């Protein structure tokens, strides 16, 4: 075996050893005690010129709270009075199905006319 072959064999062995060390994982379970957040209302939406505005209202939730469909549905606010204004005109938005929303519903202006 030549020096070059020995060197290649050595590098291959070191590479495999280092690879095995990195592939071996250690697990340690930790518990993070996060404080409960103060209740807040989250406002998400948009208003673009020439389009009707839409707004989604929800409540914040703890960072590590379990998320399922029931919990998600319970975070949304369905009975708010939402108004938008351009400083002169004011429109009230109603809660209804909205295709442009990722959730399928939002507070939107029922007529296609836009303030401003």
In words, what does this structure look like?
With 116 residues, the chain is of the alpha+beta class. The chain has a domain at 41-108. The protein is built from 2 helices and 5 strands. The chain has a 5-stranded antiparallel beta sheet, with no helix packed on it. The longest helix has 21 residues, at 3-23. The chain starts with a helix and ends in an 8-residue tail after the last strand.
Oligomer: single chain
Biggest sheet statistics:
5 strands, antiparallel
Instruction: Give the SSE string.
Output: HEEHEEE
User: Outline, from the CA principal axes?
Assistant: elongated
Tell me the number of strands.
5
Tags for this entry?
116 residues; alpha+beta; five-stranded antiparallel β-sheet; 2 helices; 5 strands; 24% strand
What secondary-structure arrangement, pairings included, does this model have?
Layout: H1 3-23, E1 41-46, E2 54-59, H2 69-75, E3 82-85, E4 90-97, E5 105-108
Antiparallel strand pairs: 1-2, 2-5, 3-4, 4-5
Gist of the model:
The protein is an alpha+beta fold and 116 residues long.
């Amino acid at each position: 075996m030549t020096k070059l072959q020995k060197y290649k064999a050595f590098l291959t062995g070191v590479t495999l050893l280092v690879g095995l060390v990195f592939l071996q994982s250690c697990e340690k379970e930790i518990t993070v005690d996060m404080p409960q957040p103060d209740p807040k209302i989250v406002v998400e939406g948009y208003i673009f010129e020439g389009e009707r505005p839409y707004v989604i209202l929800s409540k914040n939730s703890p960072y590590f709270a379990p998320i399922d469909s029931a919990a998600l549905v319970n975070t949304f606010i369905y009975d708010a009075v939402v108004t938008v204004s351009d400083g002169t005109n004011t429109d009230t938005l109603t809660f209804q199905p909205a295709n442009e929303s990722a959730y399928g519903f939002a507070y939107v202006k029922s007529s296609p006319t836009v303030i401003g």
